[in-house]
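Note to self: the last two entries modelled the partners one at a time, which told us nothing about the interface. This time every component goes in together.
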Amino acid sequence: MLAWRMSENVLVSDRAIDFILYEVLHLDALCELPAFSEHSRETFDLFLQSARRLARQALFPAYRAMDTEPPRFVDGRVLVHPIMKALYPQLVALGLVNATRPTAVGGQQLPMGIFTVAEVYLGAANLSALGYVGLTAGAAHLLETFGSEWLKQELMPRLYSGEWTGTMALTEPQAGSSLADVQTAATPRSDGSYDLRGSKIFISAGDHDLTANIVHLALGRIDGAPPGSKGISLFAVPQRRPTATGLEPNDVTITGMIHKIGWRGLPSVALSFGDHGDCRGWLVGEPHKGLSYMFQMMNEARILVGASGVGTASVAYHQSLDYARDRPQGRSLERRPRADGAQIPIIEHADVRRMLLRQKAIVEGGLLLVTATARYADISQHASDEERRKASLLLDLLTPIAKTFPAERGFESNALALQIHGGYGYSSEYLPEAWLRDQKLNTIHEGTTGIQGLDLLGRKVVAGGGAALALFGEEVRATITRAHSVNLNPTWCKALSDAIEDLTTLTAELAQAGLAGDANRMLLHSADYLDLFSIVTVSWLWLEAAAVAESKHQADPSDGFYAAMLLTAQYWLATELPRVPQLIALCRSADDSYAQMQPSWF
Amino acid sequence: MLAWRMSENVLVSDRAIDFILYEVLHLDALCELPAFSEHSRETFDLFLQSARRLARQALFPAYRAMDTEPPRFVDGRVLVHPIMKALYPQLVALGLVNATRPTAVGGQQLPMGIFTVAEVYLGAANLSALGYVGLTAGAAHLLETFGSEWLKQELMPRLYSGEWTGTMALTEPQAGSSLADVQTAATPRSDGSYDLRGSKIFISAGDHDLTANIVHLALGRIDGAPPGSKGISLFAVPQRRPTATGLEPNDVTITGMIHKIGWRGLPSVALSFGDHGDCRGWLVGEPHKGLSYMFQMMNEARILVGASGVGTASVAYHQSLDYARDRPQGRSLERRPRADGAQIPIIEHADVRRMLLRQKAIVEGGLLLVTATARYADISQHASDEERRKASLLLDLLTPIAKTFPAERGFESNALALQIHGGYGYSSEYLPEAWLRDQKLNTIHEGTTGIQGLDLLGRKVVAGGGAALALFGEEVRATITRAHSVNLNPTWCKALSDAIEDLTTLTAELAQAGLAGDANRMLLHSADYLDLFSIVTVSWLWLEAAAVAESKHQADPSDGFYAAMLLTAQYWLATELPRVPQLIALCRSADDSYAQMQPSWF
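The predicted structure of the combined assembly is written out below.
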């Protein structure tokens, strides 16, 4: 009855991407670095164009089927949707497993900034499909950086080629986010490999029938290892192990499949290693350093979680925009009824436009954020020493923001897309509810929002005596100067200038409490601090975008694109930046309600 | 593998209810009114005790099954879950269809305030099950108030007895929220009834196999009626019509069932009247007054939507509290590891307690709000003339808040409950995701949040020259006086005092713009205004609750209950009240970003 109409969903605005990449953040300037000297805006655009095409023509049309019919768990194996079998080779062919890796390992040596934008398109279209290759890329990259020659020869190339897939097997049922409590045991064997024994849970793509083998990058403890995080090692544990005569079963048992509420095309499984005492793993890097290796990968993954959040908010934004332009309902407040007495499209109601503009501000603010963060990743790896140092500090600082803002604000944005659809939005005949479900995972995986807040305040802003925060302040002030030079609204500049000063002072106060030994006092408002820092960061990026848009708008006032960018910046800066003083006061006040609250009193 | 553990979910805290009903809002004082003279705290508690028991022992245990296996649409009929057939008579036996109605129609003449609290328990347990009787109560009440003698004799008693059920058949596919665009046609017949022809959508409980008949209270237009809202009449349209020889089919066709994402035990259908020209409806009240009749019912329904929102947030809060007390993960920030080196329950992490306390503040703030609003409904109907007038103004004013706050903040609260469960919360092995889905409907049905904002600012606060707002200010100031008298934190009193002054001034300015003919300017920030007004209202109620709790706490400092109430009030007042100046500035600034934004520019 309510037939779902497959809309011409653009997923992400191409023009907004061009604006962000080349007019605001100047990603093409990366080509001046030796690592990207073979590239140019043309090669970037070729890659993006291929990603867009795959997203729009293959991934998005498959989304609904994959959401509706999740993988099945049959006789201990996971069977994926047949449509995924058609998509997988196309994702591999686009080079997604090694797009940012050097040509030496078959990669395209593309900047993370460009790759991240491609991921936004692909994630907007179909997060689950992207998941298989994203996890494989992470696993292969770990082997490339830390693996033995044998791992680099036997396993890595099969991952980069997409012949096999990879996973990140970190979480265990009893430990959850507390990786220091990982218990999987590894006993050395005489041949240099290890016997693995343990249970893992929430392992995405931990089983499927897309490829002949799966390599788990698993955390475990070598017998006799020190307790806690300093005794954790990283192992490559293939589902089937390579032998002289081919692949053999490696005693990895899939013990169950979790019924996730979103990303339903990507299975999440519980598995165990060594139920029959015959599971081999190969140590990656040195013993007891597994957590530090994994974190290197995880930091990259956190930016990609941000990209997933932006993509999921973006596709829903464009769907609700389409709906709001089409759906007639009600009449204008202006009491100037249309001559024909007909209803007006709901986009003509101010509050619907508010919900759309709020989504646009979150989606494009998120795009600016993840792209800027990925650009720092590129500079931190490939520029001159001093530039690398600075970019590395900014990358570390912004990673928890880039991971969290799109997830938390994206969830709000996705709820607005549903709301615009009214009663239809509350039905699974339409897609906004599916994207809302997808989005929620981004506040949980790769470190929950709570963990990101602790990382930002407890580690990142105080690292190197506050060096990163000082550099961040310089970036913000440079933007304010540019904004002044094109005569942007001085109220915005003043508010952002005050915000960065007050944030810096507040941070020093909180760090002082920490140095004085009161970690509880320092970190009590870490969630509010993360919210505060996110608002300042995205306001900075919107001010930068507005400064660029203002110049272009002055040059051609008839171009609605720049007018819209200016209004979106205005919406964000007028609505969110004034929350800064209140959040600063809250973090400073040390409102101690939940510190005081006893568990038994709830 | 992940077996769901049925927890001892209390659904709602009984002690919080006693506190709110009898220590803060003094619902027992209603027994001094003649209408409630047969009642006492004892009879109230007997009713609540029965509701609690039914909620905990029958409704909640059935929730999961009803969510997992929604009604089926087979051969044009809707078949509900068998477990619902066992629940329905128990809901009727509790007297839920007519609990607040006079004994003359078989009711218990209970105050709305008490009934609303019962609904919070029942809604926390199983919203869908409650839906069948709630809709029947609304339909029967409309017939009682406006129906002809024939309707009161033939249909009303069968609804009140639960022999049949009722619906509200307002929405049409082409009109949505715009009820002025209802097109269902009604042609007078010689026997005084009407021939109905038209389509309805999103009709909850519009078909099922629980009872022998269903009576739709439907909006339509009598042939020749004036256009717009002034030409809409209300009809009773039974699925099967009573004749001298019994019930006969009445040409009501169920054309489809909507796949709702929540409230999945309650079918929502599309239906049509008179596909074969043989559908009879009976006019309720006078022609063309249907919308005003329906709104009388809808205002009551809006408070009950608020109760649904509170209940849904409450059950999830208690589940996450239970989980946080049980789940060991990580170690204390204090670097004082437990002697046994074991992990600590996550409730010992400050940020988890923040998420719990925020939920508690929203849930119990919502309870205060819906109970206080329902209490005004009781006074507005049953007190002396002057008291009635005042209560009626306050009831009208607070209804959009009571409808919206639990829905919008409850959604946030439900997301926090999911977040506390981490990866498990993202699976349908656990229930928080189901309650998150349930909650979302409350921002849509019975008038979307956008519509409530327009109602509050465009109608309620300006009615009678601002009389309601002036009365509201008196109530707030009386609370501030009480708070001072027990030496509550003067910062809170000052902040609330400033808030009500500034809110009043802002409202006058916006009303002025409206009077000057600029409705767009007046209503541009209606969503922000609703948010602002909600914060002030709930802060007022938390201050009142804190004043009571402070007295009790002084009397017995060892009782953690009052200490917890004070800390919850502190959390709310320290976190939310400081947002008032920023929201006032926003409403006043007339940030015109979305007013300026052209539909084609997005």
